[in-house]
Amino acid sequence: MIIAGARPNFMKIAPVMRALKEEKDFFNTYLVHTGQHYDIQMSDVFFKELHIPKPNISLGIGSASHTQQTAKIMLAFEKILEKKKPDILIVVGDVNSTMACSLVAAKMGVKIAHVEAGLRSKDRTMPEEINRIVTDGLSDYLFVSEQSGMDNLLSEGVDKKKMFYVGNVMIDTLISNLPRIQKSSILEDLGLAKKEPYAVLTLHRPSNVDSDKALSEIYAILKEVSQKTRIIYPIHPRTKKMLQKHKFSDRFERMQNLTMIGPLGYINFMKLVQNANFVLTDSGGIQEETTVLKVPCLTMRENTERPATIDVGTNVLV
Fold this sequence. Notes:
By secondary structure, this protein is α/β, with parallel strands linked by helices. Helix content is 47%, strand content 16%. The chain has helices spanning 7-22, 44-49, 66-84, 96-107, 127-138, 147-155, 169-182, 186-189, 206-209, 212-226, 237-245, 249-254, 266-274, 285-293, 308-311; strands spanning 2-4, 31-33, 57-58, 88-92, 111-117, 141-144, 163-165, 198-202, 230-234, 258-261, 278-281, 297-299, 315-317. A six-stranded parallel β-sheet has the order 10-9-8-11-12-13, with helices on both faces. 43% of the residues are buried.
């Protein structure tokens, strides 16, 4: 049984499901979509573009506070697990669905495999850090994407026999889709002239968008950057709500050289990133994708759980 809940998960389950399908004599897979990200632009488009089979079941959880969302997923997922009794549960990444389903499986004696295990920001104010620590603590098989993950798990006393250094499934997705990414027309659609320099912005973390103080600081930074280069900003639905709540929407919309657009599908977004002069982000996965694409990335955070992107890549914490 494989769990997918939110946009970052879909890029990770695509190659895993493809590999399992190729070994269908050994594996019968059942996909559960918790519905943590549920609207078309944050979910459906990814299944279509990445050729992920339709989920066997969608729990339709939707948005709520972290605690409510985790509890709702656990209650709904317990019924599925009781009915299906899988031999193993595969969870990916660090979203609430990952931790919630792992907790249920552990209580019910189902073995757990965590893809992208061992990553640590060492910052427990990040909800994702709590999800990572709990999920790794419950997992029977830990599939690790970079050396820091192995080091973190060993320092936490995890049995080495549970750990497998396998590389990064999200980058498998990127590489396998590069020919399709090249064909995207998003640059023309946005009226970006040939070789016109631009930056891509993504922002969604509470520390950056959930308070007047944080948004004022971000606004000041963007105003300065936008005087030097055009910024394309595919806005996350959650961030859009926060801009409205803190009465920043007008200021962002009026900013010259900042183009705010709706969320993009995977292919169009990666084309935008691939051709950018640089990326401003607070995301995790984008740090890895920009490293592989050799696009400079400024990560607007105090820390990163993906230090390999700084050691070997183009990523700088700002």
